[in-house]
Amino acid sequence: MTKANSRTGGQILVDQLAIQGVSDVFCVPGESYLAVLDALHDAAIKITICRQEGGACMAADASARLTGRPGICFVTRGPGATNASPGIHIAEHDAVPLILFIGQIERGIRERGAFQEMDYRAVFGSFAKWVTEIDDPARIPEIVARAFHVACQGRPGPVVIALPEDMLTEHASVADAPYIEPAVTWPGLTQMAQLQKLLWAAERPIAILGGSGWSEKASQSFQRFAERFALPVATSFRRAALFPGAHQNYAGEIGIGPNPKLRARIETADLVLLVGGRMSEMPSQSYSLFDIPVPRQKLVHVYADAEELGRVYHPTLAIHASPTAFAAALESVQPPKAIAWVQTQAEARAEYEAWTNAAPPVPGAVNMGEVSLWLRDHLPADTIYTNGAGNYAIWPGRFLRHGWITQLAPTSGSMGYGMPAAMGAKRVCPERTVVCFAGDGCFLMNGQEFATMAQYDLAVIVIVVDNGMYGTIRMHQEREYPGRVSGTELKNPDFAAYARAFCGHGETVERTQDFAAAFERAEASGKPAILHVKVSPEAITPTTTLSAIRKAAEERQVKS
User: Fold this and answer.
1) Is 362 helix (H, G, I), strand (E, B) or coil?
2) H-helix or E-strand containing 6?
3) Nearest to 165 by CA among 101, 107, 79, 124
4) Which of 237, 301, 347, 489 could form a disulfide with 315 if both were Cys (CB 3.0 to 4.6 A apart)?
C-alpha cells in the first residue's frame, strides 16, 4: 500500500458508495460529517438536500424500491438521527434495503454525555438489521461492503452506521471493496416437484405475491407461470405493483377493506401459494384468513428468510428462496393436462373488474373514486403513485391499476411517507410522471419536502385530500365511541397557496368535474404542484359513511 493511496475516512467512504453504484444520496447536512460532504463535492453522486431527516430517509427508501439497491441517507447525530427513525421503521417493516449513515461525536469523548451523544446500537438495535460504528477508517471498505450484503440478503432491511467525526478526517491507506451482489437462496428440485404435485391435486388454488426482493424479470416469470396454470393471482397489502393490474390473471389486492369476493376466494381456496410475503396483520385481515398455527388451506410459503417460515403459519410446503430465484425456477413446474380450476381465473378477474371499474357514489361534491379512475385512464402506464397512511389512500388503492414498481406506499402504515417518497422517486426517475396522494393530516407530517421539490425543479403533482380531520382515527372513534369526537379535528391552511409560496403551482378543487382540467394545468406548468381537493368528512370509505358507522355503533350499544 502506497502513501499515494492515503485518503481521509470521508473520501474512503464516498469512494465505496461510488463502487457500489450509488447514484443518489439524500441528506440533511450536519457538522458531524463535513468530511463526507466535502468528498461528495467531487463525486459523480447526486446529493439531494432535504428539509427534515425523516423525509430524507423516506426518500432514500423510495429510491431503494425503484432501483433494487440500498437507498443511502446521511444525517447528523442526536436529533438528526432520531428524526430519521421513522424512515428506518418503514424500511424494516416493509423489508426495504437502506443504509443510514449518522455523524457521531469524536471517539475520544464518548460516554461523557457530549453534545448530542447517543448510543446508536441501543437506539436502533430493535428495528435495524445491523447497527455498528466505525472506529478505524481503514475498516470503512470492509464495513460498507458488509452493510450492502446485510441490507440486501435474506429479508432485506435497514442498516445503521455511525461515523465518528474525527475518524472521517483521519487518513488511511486501504484497498477498496468490490461491488456487492447479494447472495440468492434457490429452491431445491425436490421442493419444486412437491409444488407441482400439490398444484396437480388442487381444485381451487390462488397465488398471493408480497414482500420485497423482486425484480421485473421475476414478475414477468411469475406472469408466464400464472398463464400456463390459469392461476388467479392476488397481491398483498400495498404490493399491487408486483403483478400487472391489467393482466387477465390478476384478482386484486388483499389489504385494508378488500373486495369481499377476493377475501372469500382466499378463505375457500384449497391451496394458497404465498410468494415473498408474510401475510401479517393487514393482508391477513387481522390474522383471520388462515388458521394459526395450521391453516385450513394447504399453504406453500416461499420466503427468503428461513426464520420467517413457520413463524406464524405452519405451511404444507416451506420453500426457503428469494422471489427472484423462485420465479426463475417455476419454468420447471408443469401444469396438468387438464386444469380443474380453469374457470376460476376468469371468475376472479371478473370480480376484480366489477370491484374496480365503477366508483360508488359518496357524500359531497368530490368523489375520489372517480378522480382515481380519471388518472388511471389518462396518465402513462409507468406513472409512479405514492401515498402515506389514511383513509384517503383507499380510493387510489382500489381504483388505480399498477405495473412494475408504480406503487410506493408503506405497509407499515406510516403517515407522511407519500411526499418524500414522491420527491425521491422523481429525483431517481426524472423522466417518469410522479403523483403523490396525501391526506390533510398526512401531508403536513412531511409537507416541508415540497421545498425540496421546488429547489430541484421536481414536477411532482401532489393531491391533498382534505376532509378536515384525522379520518382513519375518526372512523375508529365513531365505531368505538360514537358521537364522542375528541382529538381528531383539524383546521387546515390553504394548501394551494402553500404551493404558490414555494413558486409552485397550486389550485383548489371542490367538484369532481373540475379535477381533470386542474390536473392538466398542473402538469402543463412543469412545476411542483398541489391540488387541494376538498372532500366531505362523511365520505370516509367508498362503501360507508361516518354517520352509518356511528348509527351502527349506537344500535350495537343499545342491544348490549
Assistant:
1) coil
2) strand 6-8
3) 107
4) 301
327 with 218: CB under 8 angstroms? yes
Same-domain check for residues 381 and 521: yes
Q: Residue 447 gets which letter from DSSP?
A: T
Quick one: CA torsion of 127, 130, 133, 139, rounded to 10 degrees?
A: -160
User: No. of H helices and E strands in the chain?
Assistant: 21, 20
496 and 377 in a single domain? The answer is yes
Quick one: pLDDT at residue 4? 62
CATH number of the domain bearing residue 102: 3.40.50.970
Question: Residue 559: pLDDT band by 50, 70, 90 thresholds?
Answer: confident
pLDDT of residue 329: 97
End-to-end, the C-alpha distance of the chain in Å comes to: 80
Give the tens place of pLDDT for each residue, 317-371.
999 999 999 999 999 999 999 999 999 999 999 999 999 999 999 999 999 999 9
Structurally, the chain folds into a number of domains equal to: 3
**Cα distance between residue 246 and residue 233, in whole Å:** 12
274 beta partners: 208, 301
Q: Are 325 and 413 contained in the same domain?
A: no
CATH of the domain at 338: 3.40.50.1220
Question: Strand pairing of 298-303 and 271-275?
Answer: parallel
Listed residues 328, 354, 380: the one ending a domain? 354
Note the pTM of the prediction, 2 decimals.
0.96
User: E strands along 156-217, which residues?
Assistant: 158-164, 171-173, 205-209
Q: Is 166 found in the same domain as 100?
A: yes
In terms of residue numbers, what domain contains 484? 358-559
In the structure, what pLDDT confidence band is assigned to residue 2 with cuts at 50, 70 and 90?
very low
